[in-house]
Please model this.
Amino acid sequence: MPLHFSCTMCGRCCHGLRLPLSLDEARRWLDDGGEVEVFCEAVPWPEEPAADNGPAWHKRKRSFLARSGQLPVRVVVTLVASFDGACPNLRADMGCGIYERRPTACRVYPAEVNPFIDVDPALKLCPPEAWQTPEVLRADDGSWADPVVAAAVVRRREDDYVEADAKHELCNLLGIHEAGLANEGMLAHTPGRERMREVLQAMAVPSNYAAPESDWILVSHRLRTMWLLESAGARGLQAADLEGAGRRFVSFVGDE
Ligand code: SF4
Ligand code: SF4
Model:
């Protein structure tokens, strides 16, 4: 069945956001006076996935190889513009003040970049009437009907793939080597606007960074996970023991 959708311009998706950005978008966001955070999560990666494991290969392409102690991991880094209230670019009439150069993620919503995740209207911010329209978002064959959305989905996905190694370089330059354990949480690093600008400008463009393998600390809020990490030879840290400013643990699941 096709999925019907038409934006009502309610503006909900422009509030309280964590907006993923490409490296160039992050540079522009910082130039415009915004803040950009670095969200890191690590997946234990003891061996390469089977050739037909599409979701695992999608994750592999978005990540770089590293280790945590003796445990091989892949680290997924996402540059994020975070704001609690309205986006600084949102106009009073709920239009976008930078419409022509808005980030690709803004063009995607409410579609999905991950080809293995289906659109679930119940998980989206759009009001019920947005889904009760003759206009089609996703056709019967799974393709995106709107060419702007289709192009944005591909662009966002390709940016994630192409920039994975550059984000490794970014983390090394920022001294970031702590990540949330995938499926439990992410570690959000907040280096500060000026530091982010300085480091993004210092990076090679285009990046063909061959980073030395880096050693990461895996952060979780679950005591049982700490034991498992220790038994796997990994370097674990409980979220409650995080010290100092500039980072916070964002959990996806309950304590146990
Ligand atoms: S940049 Fe524009 S479209 Fe994107 S969240 Fe802000 S106001 Fe909304
Ligand atoms: S939440 Fe949905 S309907 Fe509302 S502005 Fe965003 S995309 Fe449009």
